[in-house]
Design brief:
The protein has 99 residues and is mainly α. The chain is built from 5 helices and no strands. Helices cover 68% and strands 0% of the residues.
Length: 99
């Protein structure tokens, strides 16, 4: 996984009104799929209610690539409830737990 500055993820998500957040989700999804995670297309993020399911699958992918270092349920709750702050936390996890 490519390392990014967690503050960059947070600040760009705020400045772009979450457009960068969608780009970040798509990029990390692609990297996780290459590492063997089963995550559907990021286009589902724009469909109401389906986007929650997509985020659940994405969180399971985080658990897969960190080899259980991050619990999928915790990742889901952090990213869903905290938004850009949660994404920065997950990016920090990528930086430390994924080679």
């Amino acid at each position: 996984m490519q390392k990014h500055n967690p503050m960059k993820v947070f600040i760009l998500s705020i400045i772009t009104f979450s457009i960068y957040e969608i780009i970040w989700l798509a990029r990390t999804r692609g990297e996780m799929v290459r590492l063997g995670a089963d995550i559907p297309t990021t286009w589902l993020i724009v469909v109401p209610f389906v986007n929650i399911w997509y985020l659940w699958k994405w969180s399971a992918g985080v658990e897969h690539v960190t080899k259980g270092g991050s619990q999928g349920m915790v990742v889901f709750l952090v990213t869903w409830l905290l938004g850009p702050i949660g994404n920065a936390i997950v990016q920090d996890t990528f930086n430390t737990k994924v080679v």
